[in-house]
Amino acid sequence: MSKYFGSAYQFGTLGGILSLVAFGVMSWLQPDPTNLNLIFGYVITPVSIFLALKYFKDYSNNGYISFSEGMSVGFVTYLIIGLISGLGIWIILLIFPDFFESIKASKLEVLESSRETIVSQVGEESYQSTLTNVKAMVPFDIALNDTIWKIIPGLFFSIIISIILRKNPN
């Protein structure tokens, strides 16, 4: 089992920690670091998956990797990234409730400034529903959103990278 997932544990943990560091650094740069952290996740997730698959292929599997092995190692990698990042963000927001409130206020401000555009595109009822949901937001919601947006793209990155690195013994 460690043959298959040793590299996934290493690079998934590294990616999750880097994502948390990015969240912390971006929180000093602006009041709502969540959107930039998602963008950073689109960079760190494929890099971590690539490194985990390349390491597995070169050092654990004699230079070969099948598509299914790539998908398995990739799955564990992006799952670990998402869980570490989401859990860390949740803990940070619980420890610093004022920080959470500033993120929430920023999201409400963006929603209010975009009101006309949103209402014209999806209607007043959808806008009011979104406004109610943002007002009821808790720290776990932000953490869950971050986790989901690390896992979903991770699936697609794993597919692409597994195809690129695939090499079966003949």
UniProtKB/TrEMBL annotation:
<keyword id="KW-1133">Transmembrane helix</keyword>
<dbReference type="Pfam" id="PF13858">
    <property type="entry name" value="DUF4199"/>
</dbReference>
<feature type="transmembrane region" description="Helical">
    <location>
        <begin position="7"/>
        <end position="29"/>
    </location>
</feature>
<keyword id="KW-0812">Transmembrane</keyword>
<feature type="transmembrane region" description="Helical">
    <location>
        <begin position="35"/>
        <end position="53"/>
    </location>
</feature>
<protein>
    <recommendedName>
        <fullName>DUF4199 domain-containing protein</fullName>
    </recommendedName>
</protein>
<dbReference type="InterPro" id="IPR025250">
    <property type="entry name" value="DUF4199"/>
</dbReference>
<feature type="transmembrane region" description="Helical">
    <location>
        <begin position="147"/>
        <end position="165"/>
    </location>
</feature>
<keyword id="KW-0472">Membrane</keyword>
<feature type="transmembrane region" description="Helical">
    <location>
        <begin position="73"/>
        <end position="96"/>
    </location>
</feature>
